[in-house]
Design goal:
Chain lengths: ~280, ~280
């Protein structure tokens, strides 16, 4: 029964094979479509998602057709294979960057290291993520400029995402004169921090003498503020520290150098006491 | 009334026999800094919550509020210290409403969570349910009211504002911070500055549990007010030594109290949870 010839060289069995291959191909295409739609719908725009699904369906269709054609007795032959190989090679070289960006875009959509609205630093570009497209990521810099970063760059470079926590730390180094009391300065700064509404209680701030510099005693301040307003706090608070310290008689010194004359005669001439 | 003095007491525990909060002085006392938010019992004239006819003028406790009619509609102005607000409101509203609102809006709305730091430790015996009284900061909302409709035009507060992180930097939640002593009965407070929380602590576990703080969600935080008091009732169910669940109940502390207008209603944002799960320690 299976050997019934429908037309010369094409039996009923072969027709059943063709139907099975088409059916399996359809199931595979449908499964991949459902999987991609579920995993990418939050990360991609609908038109981009449609385009990806179309490409995937075309690839599956080409694969299915390449399986079916030999069953009909058509020999694709070596020449087609060679031609296909050459065309593939040419297209591969020509579209290398497009394909790399496309694949990187897919991986970014699945991995999701950044989201819309995140404040990030990618490949030296700092700003807010405005759009994540299939080929590129759009960042609006702090200066208002728009940066289009190819997804390959996003995927292969380290990403600093500043929006993953609700708080952020910033730091100041404050130099005071050697003649000023560092403990007094720290106490004044601590009082200012206690009164500041946006500087967090927990995580606690740190204020300590970090090093004895050439011209000043350097106090390090590490402060935490809500992520959304930390930069405003940083800009405003340093001036407050400066003015408060100055009003308490603690000053930031200018660079200075004490010169000692080795020649006693010259020192005497200048009226400076030497060693 | 039992008032905890931060300088001498180390921790408190709830006595299941008497239901009282007991003060325990440890030999190695923990040094707790003196509370900055200590309430001032201001005996000046209070801000009256509720409806007021327009034109309206208030000059109390360093706040000046003016709401006048003009050709366009209403002109609202408020000054408080260095802060000054002026708005022209194109409306035919007839009343101004002063209401306590959820204390998470000032100086800027950054978070829906309020953290109350008890200042001292409370040890809760297994299988007990007990009430404690806490204070919380007040924010006052200014609304214009027409026919059954309110619109918020301003919020101000007399209380000190500070933020903190509940939990660690990776997963913590930003919270408005307030430090409150623990009371077993109603303390005297300035109703323009602070409100009262009656917190029911439930410990259904079989372990002694130590708590230092409670975090509340502003969504579903129903405040009630009377002439001399703003209040809310809440529960804190201890799930383990590290986890608890808090919820603000929608009932007044005393009969006759009026419900304040809610800014963070859960029906406006149905996905928002009314409860808060404290899973980063107690």
């Amino acid at each position: 029964m299976w050997n019934i010839t429908l037309y010369p060289g094409f039996t009923l069995l072969r027709l059943i094979f063709v139907i099975i291959i088409v059916f399996v191909g359809y199931i595979i295409a449908k499964s991949i479509t459902i999987f991609l739609r579920r995993s990418l719908k939050d990360n991609l725009k609908p038109n981009e998602l449609r385009m990806i699904l179309k490409v995937v369906n075309i690839i599956v269709a080409i694969f299915v057709i390449s399986l079916i054609i030999p069953i009909f007795g058509v020999n694709l032959g070596l020449s087609l294979l060679v031609a296909g190989g050459v065309i593939g090679l040419v297209l591969g070289f020509a579209c290398q960057s497009i394909i790399t960006n496309f694949i990187s875009g897919l991986f970014l959509a699945v991995e999701r290291p950044i989201k819309l609205g995140n404040v990030v630093s990618i490949d030296g570009k700092d700003g807010t993520v405005e759009d994540i497209k299939i080929m590129s990521t759009i960042i609006r810099g702090y200066d208002g400029y728009i940066y289009r970063i190819p997804n390959e760059t996003v995927f292969t470079h380290s990403i600093t995402n500043f929006s993953t926590t609700s708080v952020r730390r910033f730091e100041y180094t404050i130099g005071i004169r050697y003649s000023d009391d560092a403990n007094d300065a720290i106490e004044i700064i601590n009082d200012l921090i206690k009164e500041h509404e946006y500087i967090l209680i927990n995580p606690a701030h740190q204020a300590f003498v970090d090093n004895l510099g050439d011209n000043s005693v350097n106090i390090i301040l590490r402060l935490w503020a809500p992520e959304s307003i930390w930069y405003n706090v940083k800009m405003e608070f340093l001036n407050k520290i400066k003015t408060t310290l100055e009003s308490n008689g603690i000053e930031m010194p200018f660079p200075q150098r004490t010169v000692w004359y080795g020649d006693k005669t010259d020192s005497d001439k200048l009226g400076i006491a030497g060693n | 009334m039992l008032k905890c003095d931060f300088r001498s007491c180390s921790f408190l525990f709830i006595n299941i026999f008497s239901g009282e909060i007991m003060k325990v002085t440890s030999t190695s006392s923990i040094k707790v800094p003196r509370g900055k938010h200590k309430i001032k019992h201001i005996r000046t004239k209070q801000i009256t919550f509720g409806f007021h006819k327009i034109p309206f003028r208030l000059r109390e406790k360093g706040i000046t509020i003016d709401l006048k009619r003009s050709e366009q509609g209403l002109v609202y102005s408020r000054t408080m210290g260095e802060e000054s607000v002026k708005k022209v409101i194109l409306t035919n509203a007839t009343h101004l409403v002063l209401n306590p609102v959820e204390p998470v809006n000032k100086p800027k709305h950054l978070t829906p969570y309020l953290l109350i730091d008890f200042g001292s430790e409370i040890l809760v015996q297994p299988k007990t349910n007990r009430n404690i009284i806490l204070r919380f900061p007040l924010e006052i909302g200014v609304f214009v009211a027409g026919k059954k409709k309110y619109h918020l035009i301003d919020i101000f507060t007399l209380s000190k504002q500070k933020y903190t992180l509940y939990g660690d930097v990776r997963v913590g939640d930003l919270c408005r911070y307030w430090r409150s002593e623990i009371y077993s009965s109603m303390p005297k407070v300035d109703p323009d500055l602070e409100g009262i929380i009656e917190l029911k602590i439930l410990n259904p576990t079989s372990k002694w549990i130590e708590i230092n703080q409670a975090v509340f969600n502003a969504y579903g935080m129903q405040l009630f007010y009377s002439k001399e008091l703003v209040s809310l009732k809440a529960t804190m169910e201890l799930k383990s030594e590290l986890v608890a669940e808090t919820e603000v109940l929608g009932s007044p502390l005393k009969p006759g109290m009026k419900q304040a207008i809610e800014l963070y209603t859960s029906f406006r944002a149905p996905v928002m949870q009314k409860k808060y799960v404290m899973e980063c320690g107690l």
